[in-house]
Design goal:
Helices cover 76% and strands 0% of the residues. By secondary structure, the chain is mainly alpha-helical. It is globular, with a radius of gyration of 15 Å. It is built from six helices and no strands. InterPro entries: TPR-like_helical_dom_sf.
Length: 115
């Protein structure tokens, strides 16, 4: 038997993640997971949590790729470009080559779309 995605399942995950954020406010992963859960259905709410991560946990590297993509989708190319660049700097500083390569590919694609 296959489980079919339903809004109730999504809401249950969101409620659980909200509890995790309240119980462990210093853990950026919980805020990140919440932002990703909202990503498709409610980009505005996802943006709220992305901004929270960027402000409260600026060194949390996983934030930068989806943050840049979200701003790109919202036609805020200047903010998207800045986030790609900041993510690349942070990945370099953290010596995270895999994330650096992923961000670099995305940033080059982003720049190619301007031409």
């Amino acid at each position: 038997m296959h489980t079919i995605f339903s809004p109730e399942m999504n809401n249950d995950r969101i409620q659980q993640l909200l509890r995790f954020v309240q119980e462990q406010p210093g853990d950026p992963f919980n805020v990140y997971a919440l932002a990703m859960e909202y990503r498709t259905e409610d980009p505005g709410q996802a943006l709220h949590y992305i901004e929270k991560l960027l402000t409260e946990h600026p060194d949390y590297l996983p934030t930068y790729y989806p943050a840049a993509e979200l701003y790109e989708e919202m036609d805020n190319r200047s903010k998207a470009g800045m986030l790609y660049q900041r993510g690349l700097e942070l990945a370099r500083d953290q010596q995270n080559q895999k994330t650096f390569d992923e961000l670099n590919r995305a940033y080059r694609r982003f720049l190619d779309e301007e031409d």
